[in-house]
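Hey, can you fold this one?
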Amino acid sequence: MAFNKVTLCKLSADYCPTIEQMEDGKIRIGENGEFAYLTTDQWNIFIDNVKAGKLDRI
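Sure. Predicted structure:
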């Protein structure tokens, strides 16, 4: 995996949701103590769907 943490807006991680790779390999998505966790398999399925064009900009 090529990232550790990505902020999902132009402000800092203090104000915006983040996607973060945790030490145990899970992916944490959220902000302000409200998080969802994906396994690496779930993350890879998500990325495969984005790359296949099944998910697009809204």
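The longest helix spans residues 40-51. Let me know if you want another pass with a different chain boundary.
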